[in-house]
Design brief:
Helix content is about 35%, strand content about 20%. It has a 7-stranded antiparallel beta sheet, with no helix packed on it. Strands 2-3-8 form a 3-stranded antiparallel beta sheet, with no helix packed on it. A hairpin with a 5-residue loop joins strand 5 and strand 6.
């Protein structure tokens, strides 16, 4: 009964992850957008989060800053008291909700020329958003990248108009494209870890998988912590390994029971989901994480290797003599 409950709860949690966890966070990329300056200089500070995903702006205390949208309309207003307001009649309020500006249909009252309808969205002088002036808007690279045969290149300069205490200003920056890194080092780490852990995985698969899930959870947390709240977290990159850690821990605790091996299967499935989502980490030069890129990249490869070792360590045993029972799975030494 407990086994069925855990398995059902696991599937429900993975399939029906809360909406904010599946929002539009920063992901590995070849693009780096950089802020080069703000005028006037005392307007506040701006940084790019996740390579090119978000611009994070914090207004100076006691200053009013209005960010203009794509049609020159007021889009965001950073009030002197710290409240951040969004104009719900600005098309940017909806276009900026998605990295590529995908919007099904605008509400009927959206009109850049209409009187703004301000709605408070924050109260600490800062806000982050997908500003499509700061990044490339297609999944395929621009022609300037292919023309340079994969060499680092500046894609374009960008500018976001702002109004600071009634005076015109702007946030200036540039977008660069960086070539992918070779996947061979990450694959080598994965292969080495798989071979090194295979003997242990054959007898202690639950231990190896619990360790892999723990490392994956740390890496997922590293990506989660770099995301602005407006990005909605890290999604399955954190949820999947956390669930795998819980279920693998149960498998470890119940490994000597007849049903113990069933807990290892959903944990492996969760690590597999996480691993598939992490494939770009092997080649992307820019990785959104509070951890160093090398730690994120090779830590991910280590999880891949550990998971492969656990899969290779699974053994299928035939019917026990005199029992007539069917074959049983022995996941790393668990009693079947």
């Amino acid at each position: 009964m407990v086994t069925r409950f855990v398995l059902v709860a696991f599937v429900v949690a993975v399939v029906f992850v809360p909406g904010p966890a599946l929002a539009d966070p920063a992901v590995p990329t070849n693009y780096r957008s950089e802020v080069e300056g703000i005028s006037p200089g005392d307007a506040g500070t701006a940084t790019i989060v996740g390579g090119d995903a978000f611009i994070d702006f914090e207004a100076a205390a006691g200053t009013e800053v209005v960010v203009l949208g794509y049609d020159g309309e007021p889009y965001l207003r950073f009030a002197p008291d710290g409240t951040v307001w969004e104009n719900q009649r600005s098309p940017a309020a909806y276009l900026n909700g998605d990295r590529y500006g995908r919007v099904g249909a605008f509400p009927g009252d959206v009109d850049p020329d209409a009187e703004p309808r301000w709605v408070p969205v924050a109260d600490e002088r800062r806000w982050a958003w997908h500003d499509h002036r700061t990044h490339w808007m297609l999944p395929t690279p621009p022609s300037i990248v292919t023309d340079r045969a994969g060499a680092p290149v500046t894609v374009f300069d960008w500018s976001i108009p702002i109004v600071v205490d009634g005076d015109e200003g702007r946030i200036d920056g540039l977008l660069r494209w960086l070539p992918s890194v070779s996947p061979l080092p990450a694959l080598a780490v994965a292969g080495f870890v798989a071979l090194a852990l295979l003997p242990a995985a054959r007898h202690h698969g639950a231990v190896v998988l619990t360790g892999a899930a723990f490392l994956a959870t740390i890496l997922g947390m590293g990506r989660y912590l770099v995301q602005p709240p407006e990005g909605g977290g890290a999604g399955l990159d954190l949820v999947a390994p956390a669930l795998a850690l819980v279920v693998a821990g149960i498998a470890l605790a119940r490994r000597r029971l007849p049903t113990g091996h069933w807990y290892l299967l959903p944990a492996l499935a969760a690590v597999a989901v996480w691993s598939l989502g992490r494939l770009p980490v092997a080649t992307a030069p820019i990785l959104p994480s509070v951890l160093p890129a090398a730690v994120d990249r090779f830590g991910t490869a280590a999880v891949w290797g550990a998971a492969m070792a656990v899969v290779a360590g699974f053994r299928v045993e035939g019917p026990r003599a005199g029992t007539g029972s069917g074959p049983t799975i022995d996941p790393g030494g668990a009693a079947a």
